[in-house]
Inverse folding.
């Protein structure tokens, strides 16, 4: 069965890129642009994996992770950000993987495969 | 009479009691001068003046060497050239109530005058600082010891060129040092009065030398801190640019890869090219903002009508808040004119502050934009909001570059505002309480009210 991914990314174009590329890689992708919409989706549907940015308008990715953990402890989370430095933020340890955004999506795809196949 | 329970005294004493010795007064002057906004040189000259203030601390002349790289270089030589000149200087300096201000004034006049041949001569001296350096005067610095030369003409360790210049038998060499480094040295002598240098003189000189060393060391530390801050700021700048560029670059790279994929259809290819083009424009915009921030022109100052300027600014803000439960109240004193270096930048700066206010109130709240006179000289442009406020912990950092509370903040807005206001000769104040709101006050010089108005 197709694995379901939820992507939280506020950059419109990046969102589009991830949606297309990850769909091409065989996943069923839902993409949202902010944390609140993401939480609504998580409450209503089940996902196999969540990929989130950190810096977003409104709630940031770290707050989102905290709230996801309160709702559903079992969904693996990948942090996908432009910033190296959040790696040292202890709340990001709660995520299952930390990927620094890169023009090549290979690392992100590899992490997804590693986590959910 | 009621006895007072506490007494308060000015830390910086101007008057001394009868019992206070002359030395104590001079040391007080030296110590106080350190807290005045004088340069290191001025402060060192105060010490040198105190050392040579006639009957003061007992010496006639003082020469200063400072370390520069690996060399000791002559910087100043303070003292009278003749007994007659000595008397006139000492008369000035023994005037009752004389303080560092007068001493510095006196020194400055001395150093700028054409006749200061002593300093001109001393500046020709330069000695290498080696551990094995054996010639006096450099020996005192490398040995980190005071050296009293009793009979210079018969002492082979005295540099002949130096002896020729100082032209006296007896002098005291005093090293200026920090824990690790040699900072310089003083050479003190009594060439005018020919009085022998006694033990008390050496004690006073050592105290002065320690104070001078402290001054030099502190000045060096301050310089180093400023340099380190510059390096740190450059590091932050590099980090900032890296982050700002990453998202557009990832997008460009990703869509470019798709272009190369033979499965990508023509329509999608066209769309990708458009996306790539728009991301490139965004990169350009980021660079533009950055260079705008780095180069704020301080053009000629012009007088600007506040009403006109703020009307333009509030228009763009009104567009932003349209359809939201945010009110913007504007109150501008009629006829208020500001003196600005660059109206475009100031308008942009105020728009930045207003933008922040809109972000702070989020969905609902009030924003007040006011412009009014304060006192005769200043006009204030105040932006008040009922937003979330600035956390106390970062209030003193908000004007630093690359500090932002916003998730996508560039951290340049308020740094830019401050630079613009500073360039206009104004200042900026902020008051903020979390959950209550924030007020920014931008102070600008105002054009004087027309007579009769």
């Amino acid at each position: 069965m197709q694995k379901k991914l939820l992507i939280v990314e506020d950059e419109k174009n990046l969102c589009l890129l991830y949606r297309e590329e990850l769909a091409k890689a065989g996943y069923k992708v839902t993409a949202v642009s902010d944390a609140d919409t993401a939480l609504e989706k998580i409450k209503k549907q089940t996902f196999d994996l969540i990929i989130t940015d950190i810096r977003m308008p409104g709630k940031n990715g770290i707050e989102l992770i905290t709230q996801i953990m309160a709702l559903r402890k079992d969904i693996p989370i990948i942090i996908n950000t432009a910033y190296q430095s959040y790696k040292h933020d202890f709340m990001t340890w709660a995520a299952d993987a930390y990927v620094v955004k890169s023009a090549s999506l290979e690392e992100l795809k590899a992490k997804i495969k590693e986590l959910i196949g | 009479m009621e006895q007072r329970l506490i007494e308060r005294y000015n830390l910086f004493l101007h008057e001394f009691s009868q019992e206070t010795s002359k030395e104590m007064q001079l040391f007080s002057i030296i110590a106080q001068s350190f807290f005045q906004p004088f340069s290191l040189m001025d402060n060192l000259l105060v010490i040198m003046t105190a050392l040579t203030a006639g009957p003061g601390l007992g010496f006639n002349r003082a020469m200063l060497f400072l370390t520069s790289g690996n060399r000791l270089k002559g910087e100043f030589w303070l003292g009278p050239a003749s007994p007659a000149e000595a008397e006139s200087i000492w008369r000035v300096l023994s005037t009752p109530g004389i303080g560092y201000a007068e001493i510095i004034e006196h020194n400055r006049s001395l150093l700028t005058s054409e006749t200061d041949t002593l300093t001109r001569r001393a500046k020709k001296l330069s000695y290498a600082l080696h551990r094995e350096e054996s010639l006096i005067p450099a020996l005192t610095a490398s040995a980190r010891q005071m050296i009293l030369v009793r009979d210079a003409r018969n002492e082979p360790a005295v540099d002949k060129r130096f002896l020729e210049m100082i032209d006296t038998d007896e002098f005291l060499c005093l090293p200026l040092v920090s824990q690790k480094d040699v900072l310089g040295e003083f050479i003190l002598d009594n060439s005018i009065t020919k009085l022998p240098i006694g033990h008390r003189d050496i004690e006073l000189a050592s105290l002065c030398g320690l104070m001078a060393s402290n001054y030099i060391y502190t000045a060096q530390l301050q310089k180093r801190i400023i340099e380190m801050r510059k390096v740190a700021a450059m590091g932050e700048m590099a980090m900032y640019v890296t982050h700002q560029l990453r998202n557009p670059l990832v997008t460009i790279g990703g869509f470019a890869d798709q272009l190369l994929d033979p499965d990508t259809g023509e329509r999608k290819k066209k769309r990708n090219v458009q996306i790539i083009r728009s991301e490139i424009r965004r990169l350009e915009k980021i660079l533009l903002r950055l260079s705008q921030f780095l180069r704020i022109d301080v053009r000629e100052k012009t007088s600007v009508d506040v009403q006109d300027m703020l009307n333009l600014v509030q228009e763009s803000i009104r567009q932003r808040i349209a359809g939201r439960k945010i009110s913007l109240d504007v109150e501008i004193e009629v006829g208020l004119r500001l003196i600005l270096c660059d109206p475009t930048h100031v308008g942009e700066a105020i728009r930045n502050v207003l933008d922040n206010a809109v972000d702070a109130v989020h969905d609902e709240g009030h924003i007040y934009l006011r412009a009014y006179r304060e006192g005769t000289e200043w006009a204030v442009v105040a932006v008040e909001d009922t937003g979330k406020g600035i956390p106390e912990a970062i209030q003193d950092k908000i004007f630093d570059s690359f500090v932002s509370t916003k998730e996508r903040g560039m951290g340049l807005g308020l740094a830019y505002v401050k630079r613009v206001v500073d360039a206009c000769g104004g200042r900026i104040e902020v008051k903020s309480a979390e959950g209550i709101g924030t007020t920014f006050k931008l102070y600008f010089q105002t054009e004087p009210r027309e007579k009769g108005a």
Observations:
- The radius of gyration of chain B is 32 Å.
- The interface with chain A takes residues 239, 243, 246-247, 249-258, 275, 278-279, 406-408 of chain B (CB under 8 Å).
